[in-house]
């Protein structure tokens, strides 16, 4: 099969020739810069200047020869930076700092800093008056969408790959609230200042619907998958209670996904880390087609065979390739291969599975392990799938 056909067959819950494979088609299934340099070395491709596709996370954009060597079946379509480019990074003592488009100050250590983390939220007072003064990002900036249709048309006409669309500011109803208010403050606001919290999340919802409208006007008929993000889980439990999610967040997710579905036939990919098993029926109900990343180290997500039995007819799984906390960085190559074979055996039968890392491959993962992971996908992922 050609890659696009392979991906769509799997997402339609049918068995293709082999499991589809992804690296780097989303901001949550990619590879960090040092890990990418190590992968280049393991592939014998030598050092090169990487493309940075997400500076907050330090993500490399995999080169075409790397994706072909690993068997990658997907390619991304990203929105562009705004007019004037991204906010500048400045040096302040031992830190690199910039103000993001939400007005939040983020920083990382200059010596071996990895992610930019929130250090000063944009809204410090939980009041409707403060919200009235808040400067929302400009999602109507035409520079964000310029040339996207031509890019997507070229990829559809000149390549065989499935296209995954990403609309900046088109997601993170809860996530943007946590960032703009600060995590502890936002969690308190959800319970103690619900009018303020819901007003902010309404603003994010309106912004997201506008952004998706602009994006899908350009590429809605050309993309195969659209990526939607909002973290709902911690390591051992949901980030908010199911009752709070269903009352305050789910209706807004539903509105955004309905707006997406009005403009495209693409499959809806929903990313949430952590212990989110309780939310899977809700995701299915509001129109999610794909769950990512299936964090197998989180509570309730470990038994991927059980997840497949319970939900596999109604939702596809994208991720789960290997426990990225304990096994991928620290275990042996054979442990990595064994883990990958197990997840393939659990999730791939009957289709409905795309092989990808559990979130981004971090800088402590060697190129040999990344290569072993993807080689195992090619070897063990051919149908019919062998049992684990």
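^ Assign residues to that structure.
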């Amino acid at each position: 099969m050609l890659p696009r056909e392979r991906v769509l067959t799997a997402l339609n819950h049918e068995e293709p020739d082999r499991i589809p494979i992804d690296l780097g088609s989303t901001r949550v299934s990619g590879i960090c810069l040092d890990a990418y340099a190590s992968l280049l070395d393991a592939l014998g491709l030598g050092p090169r200047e990487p493309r940075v596709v997400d500076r907050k996370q330090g993500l490399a954009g995999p080169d075409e020869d790397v994706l072909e060597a690993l068997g990658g079946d997907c390619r991304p379509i990203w929105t562009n930076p705004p007019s004037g480019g991204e906010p500048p990074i400045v040096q302040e003592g031992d830190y690199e700092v910039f103000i993001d488009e939400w007005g939040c100050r983020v920083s990382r250590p200059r010596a071996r800093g990895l992610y930019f983390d929130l250090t000063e939220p944009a809204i410090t007072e939980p009041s409707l008056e403060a919200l009235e003064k808040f400067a929302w990002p400009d999602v109507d900036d035409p520079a964000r969408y310029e040339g996207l249709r031509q890019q997507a048309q070229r990829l559809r006409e000149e390549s065989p790959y499935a296209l995954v669309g990403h609309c900046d500011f088109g997601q993170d109803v809860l996530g943007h609230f946590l960032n703009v208010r600060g995590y502890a403050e936002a969690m308190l606001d959800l319970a103690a200042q619900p009018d303020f919290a819901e007003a902010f999340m309404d603003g994010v919802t309106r912004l997201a619907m506008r952004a998706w409208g602009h994006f899908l006007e350009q590429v809605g008929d050309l993309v195969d998958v659209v990526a939607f993000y909002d973290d709902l889980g911690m390591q051992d439990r949901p980030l908010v209670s199911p009752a709070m999610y269903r009352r305050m967040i789910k209706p807004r997710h539903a509105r955004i996904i309905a707006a997406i579905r009005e403009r495209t036939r693409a499959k809806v990919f929903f990313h949430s880390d952590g212990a989110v098993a309780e939310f899977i029926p809700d995701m299915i109900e509001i129109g999610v087609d794909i769950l990512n990343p299936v964090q197998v180290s989180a509570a309730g997500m470990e038994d991927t065979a059980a997840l497949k039995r319970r939900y596999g007819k109604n939702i596809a799984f994208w991720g789960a390739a290997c426990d990225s906390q304990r096994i991928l960085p620290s275990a042996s190559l054979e442990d990595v291969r064994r883990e990958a074979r197990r997840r393939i055996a659990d999730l791939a039968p009957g289709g409905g599975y795309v092989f990808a890392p559990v979130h981004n491959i971090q800088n402590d993962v060697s190129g040999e392990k990344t290569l072993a992971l993807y080689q195992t996908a090619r070897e063990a992922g051919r149908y019919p799938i062998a049992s684990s």
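Residues 96 and 294 are 32 Å apart (CA to CA).
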